Amino acid sequence: MIYAKNITKTFGDLQVLKGIDLEIPTGKLYSIVGPSGAGKTTLLQILGTLSNPDSGELLIKDESVFKLGEKQLAAFRNREIGFVFQFHYLLPEFNALENVCLPALIAKKGKKETEERAKELLDFLGLSQRLTHKPSELSGGERQRVAVARALINKPAVIMADEPSGNLDSKNRDDLHDLFFKLRDEFNQTLVIVTHDENFARQSDRIIRMRDGRIEE
Ligand SMILES: Nc1ncnc2c1ncn2[C@@H]1O[C@H](COP(=O)(O)OP(=O)(O)O)[C@@H](O)[C@H]1O
Ligand SMILES: [Mg+2]
Prior knowledge:
- This protein is an alpha/beta fold.
- The chain has a single domain (2-215), classed as 3-Layer(aba) Sandwich (Rossmann fold), CATH 3.40.50.300.
- The chain is 37% helix and 26% strand.
- It binds adenosine-5'-diphosphate and magnesium ion.
- Residues 11, 16, 34, 36-42 line the site of adenosine-5'-diphosphate.
């Protein structure tokens, strides 16, 4: 599903990624762990096509993504990659249902089918009673589940999450982690998740340990 070869990235005179090689198969949940500053977020942003590497190659679904033009790349990202961040980044003036629908409406999908899928997803995530709640009317765990539904709306090839449970209490953290495994097991969803949670990482299909811009084996 994802093939990365010799990815490097430098900020100023700091080389943050020193040649990353990585292959992530379909239907697997890979975790990325490592100390703060190791380059985890930088790597995930590049794998998610949000940021360009200085060198290297990235294939997602056999598409050489950095060879796409700007517009094509934005469309590819919208369609194929679902993001979940540490902070939910839901739009405060829109309710849960509207937030989940946004990426599909950006992809010019029909309103009716989009709302149906959004409702199904929110139902699957245990939020069918929260459709018209605004983010400020939801708990932290509920907000992150809405963010997961938003990430899933376009049936992306891969979900990428950067410390998605970093702001949750232990109950909501465990629920969110269970949800990621459920997405893998029930939908064959591919996931790449940066985490500080060793217990969660140990349950994943592979732990990618980063240190100082490299993957440790
Ligand atoms: N946009 C940026 N400009 C300059 N330095 C950056 C930028 N983004 C990250 N860095 C630096 O790159 C290093 C790795 O950061 P990051 O990928 O966020 O690490 P991690 O997520 O593992 O904590 C850090 O030293 C950080 O300060
Ligand atoms: Mg980080």
